[in-house]
Amino acid sequence: MRTSRARSGRGSGGRQAAKSGIAGAAALIGAAALVVSVVPAQAVAAPPPTPGPAEVVPGKGTSTPSLVGGIREDAGASGSAADAAKRHLAGKKDRYRIDRPDRDLAAVQTVTNGTSETVRFQQKHRGVDVLGGQYVVRMQRQNGKRVVTGASGKYFTALTTGTTPEVSEELAVERAVDTTLAQLDREGFGVDTGEAGDAPPLSGTARGLVVLPKGPGVLTHHVTVRGTDPATRQPVLREVYIDAKAGYPVLQYSGIKTFGTAGGGGSASGSMAASPAGQRVAADGSAVKGSGVKFDGTTVELDLTHEPSNNQYVMRDTARMRDSSKAEISTWDVRKKTVDEVSGQWPSDVLEFRSPNPAFDKEATEAGAVDAHWAAGKVYDYYKSVHGRDSLDGRGMAINSMVGVTYYGTPYANAFWDGAKMVYGGGDAEYRPFSAALDVVGHEMTHGVVENSANLVYAGQSGALNEAIADYFGNAIDTDAHGTPMDSPDAGLLGEGLCRTKSPRACATRDMNDGRTTSKGFLGVDFATDNGGVHLNSTIFSGALWDIRKDLNRTLADKIVYRALTEYMTPLDGFTEGRNAVIAAAKDLGVTGKDLNAVTRAFNGHGIVPDWELAIGADTDQLLGRLETRDSRVGAGGGWWVASKSNESGSEPYSIWAGRADGTGEKKLISPNDGRFHINPVTDGKTVVWQAQGPRGHDLLSRPLAGGPVKTLVHSRYGFHQQAKVDGDVVVFVQAFRRGASQLGYLRKGDKEPTMVDDAIGRFNGIGQHSLKNGKIAYGTRIYKGRGKYEYFTKVLDIASGKTTVMPQLGTPLNVGQTAITSKYVFWTVDEVADQGQRAVRRANLDGTGVMDISKEQGADALYPEALTASEDAVTVRSRTPDTGPGYRNETLPKLWQFSVDGSRRARMSCNRGEQGLPAAVSGTQVVWIDSSAGYADLVTRTRPAGNCG
């Protein structure tokens, strides 16, 4: 194995620190170019490609092709591989449309594989990194010359945006932290950090400027936000991109990569703490062989280090990388640590698992340490022997596994890769330690391989590709190690060996043999749900890869997928680009005839064909397509709808549009195009009220639907919680203040200053979930009573009389949710039982009499309402159903349910697949909402429920 690598400044003897690579951007943006030489074992012989006309696949939204193949074009012999690749791109300007490769492309990685060389470039726009802008050039060295055999990736030719920010880095960090806190605010009353502020506060780290490749480009500050969710105590990592002109979060998603879809986990990337310094090879001990018993009862050999100073045998393998980087494979005991203590950092007081003799005992078995250490070696061996890859980064990085992590002293049933190490939960009453499954270990370690090659953005389709490849290689390693036939019905199961009592199929988190196709199985969700479906949709692509492995030689299939990942794919690739990469890689490896047809057939069978998204059906009427907005609600009233919308590419700041709910007439632009982001509009059919966010703060604005000047109602530095409400001459809003405090206020026609409601004022108190009708405001409050105890109330304020009525409850609320008020009733959601989060939908007369539940909290039909809206005739809620299994399904995603006001009728509002967004009642049974079925946001409506969707 021959490896050359750029020095990190810590010296070759130091254990490798975690990179500051980021999920959603190129793994090596801004880093020195890396040069990796590999000599693959058992290489599949590939004949030289036959020269001929270039096979060119056009790019989307760019003049640069996404893939060029079938060529053999001279690149000269002088200079480095990167120099030769740039000469080729410059010499073929009519094909590639890259004007100045020397200026706009930075070489970040060169991989030499025998006689082949692959150079990966990062696109720069006026010196600023472009998110996902990577281009790859593949070459062969023969007889002292270089020949280009192909190129692929994304180079965005339409970028024209300026690169001078108008928003400071400090304000961008503040906005990124604020928007993350808003995402964590599940109650709607602000995030509570605890009486003593014991939860680690969220903090933001500026990563520099990044151009988002939307249309002419959007200049952003990239900020990584870290900390702990005060409510759930799960670790938080969010990658947030703040528009550098207005200060609005135009892109945000979680960087957490877990094996399953539920629970916490560690970051995929971000700023990682270094592993402990010093590679203790000869100085601290000697490499020895030991043994241990895996969780399944099998005795296995372990590579250990003997420390003579204390006569301890330590789970530290110094043998595997002795001839390359001299890095170690170590397994660490974190059974007394919680997930937030190990996510993205290295506790100073943890030690590797150790034993007084080389045969580890039952304690190490039950902790999952034996499995973790043995499996880490197996995964390393697989990548080294099959693909010639030295560790996860291809350059001999240290491999560290933390085993037995808890969830604040309670069992943690999950596993994650945090950009530097693997972390495994100790399991619970049903699940074994998560290191006790080789496919799980292979999955998590493959995330490291992906991050150090194509670094597929961990959101949406590229995130599903990331998960699919991790699943594929995790299972490939597992089935080969256990001799599982590829035609076994259980061969495609992931995590099937984790359960203590369930059968493998009942236990499995995913099944690559589930037969799902894009037209029938794709689940469109927002980035707030499973990061845009990274687990939900992964089997669409991994299923196609698994079919290839069933039809071809196993090793050949693995080499095809590995080559596609490391030499073709780039960070923003989706399913179609992934298909093209795999087919091209197969051709590179000499696959022809029926075998090549099998590769193509696998993708066709899973519906991964050009424009596959167009086949997704819907039972709703579209009012406004492709909103291209994030975190903005819609409004309705008086026969009109209002919504935020960007342009088709999503590059423009959001504007407010209005239209008739029956779909007739022309749509109206309500807000000015002034560079601010206009969001969260509401209307009563006469007036539109909305929020505008810019570099100098947040404004609450209004304008008549019929036209007229825009009026500023309230200015706030910290913004407004949820939507304002308007009805006639009254506007109601909740203004935010520092440290999560908020206050309810209202304005009447002619008021120069708002009237603030003296209710729920205080650091840990909260107010919100407001609604408005006929001069009456319904709202909820959270009152802190000390020692972590709260009281929750639902109230109605009559503005004219000043009287406040507290709505009676049927029990003692643990929480109250969104209100909706009509001319007769007030509706709200309430949680009174400590269960899985079910809530009742409650109704009362405006004077507080006649309290009843139109949907009960307990029982088979209980819902998990997250939002509520009402007309005089119907109540509509958005309900998410937690899955009882190991992952989300379509049935567990947010859907809309509608009730008659007395609860006698209940039905699904729409049968669309995927996620249904926050609804707004029009009148009667008509509702408008944001539908994400196709993976992007459309404003849709139905005038009546669809039925039970059974």
- Give the overall shape, derived from the CA principal axes: globular
What is the number of beta strands? 52
CATH architecture of the domain at 272-452: Roll
Low-confidence stretches: 1-32, 39-47, 262-275, 277-283
Question: Mind describing the biggest β-sheet?
Answer: 12 strands, mixed
In CATH terms, what is the fold-level topology of the domain at 272-452?
Elastase, domain 1
Distance between the termini: 58 Å
Note the total helix count: 16
The structure class reads alpha+beta
In short:
This protein has about 950 residues and is an alpha+beta fold.
Description:
- This protein is of the alpha+beta class.
- Among the domains are: 34-153, no CATH class; 169-254, Roll (Nuclear Transport Factor 2, Chain: A); 272-452, Elastase, domain 1, CATH 3.10.170.10; 456-614, Neutral Protease, domain 2 (Orthogonal Bundle); 623-732 and 745-750, Peptidase/esterase 'gauge' domain (Methylamine Dehydrogenase, Chain H).
- Helix 9 (460-482) packs parallel to helix 13 (538-551) and helix 13 (538-551) runs antiparallel to helix 16 (593-605).
- It starts with 33 loop residues before the first strand and ends in an 8-residue tail after the last strand.
- Mean pLDDT is 89; it is low at 1-32, 39-47, 262-275 and 277-283.
- The chain is globular, with a radius of gyration of 29 Å.
- The longest helix has 23 residues, at 460-482.
- The strands form eleven sheets. Strands 1, 2, 3, 4, 5, 6, 7, 8, 9, 10, 11 and 12 form a twelve-stranded mixed sheet that branches. Strands 16, 17, 18, 20, 21 and 22 form a six-stranded mixed sheet that branches. Strands 13-14-15-19 form a four-stranded antiparallel sheet.
- It contains 16 helices and 52 strands.
